[in-house]
Design a protein that fits this description.
Layout (H helix, E strand, L loop, with lengths): L17 H14 L4 H19 L18 H6 L11
Length: 89
């Protein structure tokens, strides 16, 4: 059986403080065994998928990704490495 993540509208997601998010990261890494790099790659993949769905008319246009230096910046770093088929080049 394949696990499918439920779709939850953003308005139904709780906002987390930075300390709460660090706790979530700790649980993911220490308790669930999910590596930080895997979380970063997943964030980048989903960012690329979101951009593809929102800006499909710009498929063949070069894109520049600007990302900050915080934790979320890693998704911007990972997203450009995802090909249109969702695979790393």
């Amino acid at each position: 059986m394949t696990w499918v993540w439920p779709v939850v509208p953003a308005r139904d997601l709780p906002a987390l403080t930075a300390d709460e998010m660090r706790q979530v990261d700790r649980v993911m890494i220490e308790d669930l065994g999910i590596e930080l790099v895997q979380m970063m790659e997943n964030a980048g993949l989903h960012l690329a998928e979101l951009a593809r769905s929102r800006f499909s008319q710009l498929w063949d246009v070069p894109v520049t990704v600007l990302a900050g230096g915080g934790n979320i910046g890693a998704a911007g770093w990972c997203a450009p490495g995802i090909s249109p088929t969702g695979e790393h080049p």
